[in-house]
UniProtKB/TrEMBL annotation, chains A, B:
Name of the protein this chain belongs to: Spermine synthase
One example of a Gene Ontology biological process annotation: spermine biosynthetic process
Source organism superkingdom: Eukaryota
Keywords, ordered alphabetically: Polyamine biosynthesis, Transferase
Tagged with keyword Transferase: yes
Length: 366, 366
């Protein structure tokens, strides 16, 4: 596997002459390694020096005139020896820089190596676009359904993680998410009629069935209206095999004593229920997160969300409750918009929200 | 601020001829940008092509013969326009690659930009060495005490975060940590004698004082025996100003009705208490995490930990309880060693453990 180490040295110098001094000080360290040097001098933008090794490794040394020196190494060594050599090289660079600037260095930052091109991809950005490395050690399931790519990856600390089209959906550690969307333990589901929209990982279904409801109906929509949602048969197939801590045995059959799973488009199902006057005590929408887009007029996903909301209200008993997830707490615009959508419903609703720590999301979710 | 975008294209090709085809296909895209090209051909290790722009930006195109193409861009544009240009460039590369391989690409991965050399450093690796980007938007406090560097950084979702010598210590969102180390709400502190070792952020002190204890004594050791610990006056100064959600007003004075804070080395204090026969119902050790090192014989930190443990047991009432934190759940070797240390104490102890999700740690902590 190829990896890349990024190291930053942050100084206070301001003269082109200093750029040259840095170059002169560091050159011998790379040359000792038998690396071939190519120097580019921008004059007003400092230096880029490329060092190339015979084994295919290379280093970029970027010296900026305002006092920033960046060293990037790219190597293919999956042995400890190669890693140690790189550490030694960087230690030497650090030492030399401290000598040169008499310890007057504002910041030295060495980032963990970024592993690239391996079988296992450990980098799954958060909903607000931050880089996060997971402790993935195994690809458990990796299939393309007609709607999305479905991955189940094993994390040492979170257990198996369901990733749909690149978005972290749920890990076996995330009972907190399931509990939150069920009302944080404050609801009594005994003898109740419950409708779950989405929920293909089976987590909500499994937890509610334990609470002796009258009937739980889970509708797995089966079209790709929503970019990323846990909604297809192949999600169920993957989860019932590999997310058993989340779903138990509840997905082994699509029908149980007090539950049924319909692999159907939820829109016509909701319309039919509304027409028949079939009413629920709880509707739990686990179809998708609040869309990240903040231009609802242009975005059909918002329209779709509003449609689902409207239809859900029509099948909800007078004193019924509707639960859904929000999105990453940092996407405040999207969350505010979602609250605005609530005020546009055909009937007035009251709502409250709650923030929860979902371990595998590595961010807070309202 | 300088930033770097890493993009990986992962193909299935195996011939040197294919490397050349990739090079030929992608060259025009970079040349159109007015970039100067330098090609290095390893023959058996593929190509490294460096593209340099007049404004100081540059790109590395690394083509590996086993079917991996890496594109790294380094730029200084903090405007949206620069970012959009880079996105467009990468879109073109992706398009061209899909054409060339008729869509037969195993993986395309574009990582979020890594921001470097800025005032704000957003990258704080986890205890087990994984790269994590926090949503830091402000440096609130940044001082060097005689013992360590103390940073308090503001995160949009976690509030202010205390970082000691580069290790994330506690965020204002992390009441869960404080509650866990206090016994997860199962303990009755009313009228009790409590000793806190460390705890300079004031979180534990603040929470216990609310529970009407008889007396809480917090000892802040004042030497640098432990590499990273929340133990000095400057930590207290920073926290009482900037971590008020954690510590309330409890650090405004070092003495209150039912508590006192001693800025002293805890070892002689513990020895004195042991000699005087001063006994506590609870000892809470928040001095430091379990050391990461797994060679306790060589490591004086383990010895130090054992000394603290031994002395703590001496000032603990017969039915008293000792609470401490563990470390990241992935550092299983270190945790096992810690449990072994417990069995080496001068008196036999019973212990239990619990895993908790600490929001800002982005990992599970036993």
């Amino acid at each position: 596997m190829w990896w890349k180490i990024l190291t930053d040295y942050f100084f206070s110098f301001n003269l082109a002459a200093d750029c040259n001094a840095v170059l002169k000080a560091l050159q011998p360290i790379f040359q000792e390694q038998g690396m071939t040097e190519t120097v580019h001098n921008w004059e007003d933008h400092g230096y880029l020096v490329t060092y190339i090794k015979k084994n295919g490794s290379f280093a970029n040394l970027r010296i900026h005139p305002h006092g920033l020196v960046l060293v990037d190494l790219q190597s293919y060594n999956d042995d400890m020896k190669g890693r140690q050599e790189v550490d030694q090289l960087l230690n030497k660079v650090e030492e030399r820089m401290k000598e040169l600037f008499h310890g007057n260095i504002k910041r030295v930052k060495r980032l963990p190596a970024i592993l690239r091109g391996g079988v296992i991809d450990r980098y799954w950005p958060t909903a607000d676009g931050r880089l996060v490395e997971y402790d993935i050690d195994e690809v458990v399931y990796d299939e393309d359904s007609p709607f999305q790519n479905i991955k189940i990856l094993h994390s040492k600390q979170f257990g198996n993680i369901l990733i749909l089209s690149g978005d972290v959906n749920l890990a076996e550690s995330d009972l907190a998410y399931t509990q939150a969307i069920m009302g944080s333990g404050k609801e009594d589901y005994t003898g109740k009629e419950v409708l779950i929209l989405g929920g293909g990982d089976g987590g909500i279904l499994y937890e509610i069935v334990k609470l002796k409801p009258k009937m739980v109906t889970m509708v797995e929509i089966s079209f790709d209206k929503v970019a990323s949602s846990n909604i297809d048969q192949m999600v169920i197939d993957g989860c019932k095999k590999h997310m058993r801590k989340t779903c138990g045995d509840v997905l082994d059959n699509l029908k149980g004593e007090c539950y049924q799973v319909l692999i159907e488009d939820c829109i016509p199902v909701l319309k039919r229920y509304a027409k028949e006057g079939r009413m629920f005590d709880y509707v739990i929408n686990d179809l998708t997160a609040v869309p990240i887009s903040t231009s609802p007029e242009e975005d059909s996903t918002w329209e779709f969300l509003r449609l689902i909301l409207d239809l859900s209200m029509k099948v909800l008993k007078q004193d019924g409750k509707y639960f859904t997830q929000g999105n990453c707490i940092n996407l405040t615009d999207a969350l505010t918009l979602y609250e605005e959508q609530l005020s546009r419903l055909y009937c007035p609703v009251e709502f409250s929200k709650e923030t929860v720590c979902v371990p595998s999301y590595m961010e807070l979710y309202p």
